[in-house]
Amino acid sequence: xxxxxxxxxxxxxxxxxxxxxxxxxxxxxxxxxxxxxxxxxxxxxxxxxxxxxxxxxxxxxxxxxxxxxxxxxxxxxxxxxxxxxxxxxxxxxxxxxxxxxxxxxxxxxxxxxxxxxxxxxxxxxxxxxxxxxxxxxxxxxxxxxxxxxxxxxxxxxxxxxxxxxxxxxxxxxxxxxxxxxxxxxxxxxxxxxxxxxxxxxxxxxxxxxxxxxxxxxxxxxxxxxxxxxxxxxxxxxxxxxxxxxxxxxxxxxxxxxxxxxxxxxxxxxxxxxxxxxxxxxxxxxxxxxxxxxxxxxxxxxxxxxxxxxxxxxx
Length: 314
Known about the structure:
Elements: H1 3-16, H2 21-30, H3 35-56, H4 68-88, H5 94-101, H6 104-114, H7 122-137, H8 149-170, H9 179-197, H10 212-238, H11 240-245, H12 249-260, H13 268-287, H14 291-296
């Protein structure tokens, strides 16, 4: 296997592993575990994994004192993004919500233009219109019901908060912090939000079946450690732009599991909407200067899908 093929393969694995979330999360939800408890354990288990990766690469845990407050803010911002997306899955299908979340690179480009005065190119405007057209085609789910406005607003809030996080860590004192230590502290401070939401441990759901602990560990290992290692390796082999473009496999994988596992319907209209959004984001990534931002602070800890209320007992 030559270097380029290996790079593309690793990039595809990095993106596709995000789609393993429902496979491990579904048994936990069936057992009655609530989203806050799942996210608490996921972050908690991921922290030592990142710690071992830091030690294994010979990096330091030390950070400057002035970076502490920005780290706390960014950690809470990422945690809020997780919660917002969790709630959105109560109102729409997993595949559609995951595709809508994928517009965050466009939000990054738009914020950079409006706030930091980067030139807003015709290409960016075209991609925004393309993405809006795709979203318009998703206005109805596979079963014919109109998308919930609440669900759309929640997933957009999740995408926006993540876009702000990406920009924030690149425009603050955190831009000089190495990716591994940065992610370690983001999770460390982010888990505090879930700890508060589970009543400081009082309302934390503890799984009774021993094998379900394997699901919790898998959620921390596959979409986190494995995806992170594959992403960084792919960047070394093929560069940041092709690796970022391969991120389009994230919503594709989510749609696949939505159809295959959750029984969601993929109509030609929904398929076209998904393709338009993926195309718009791919063009943005390939033709702008935000690629390095997206790669360095990629979603290492994607959010877990919830079964929609109408299907919770299905």
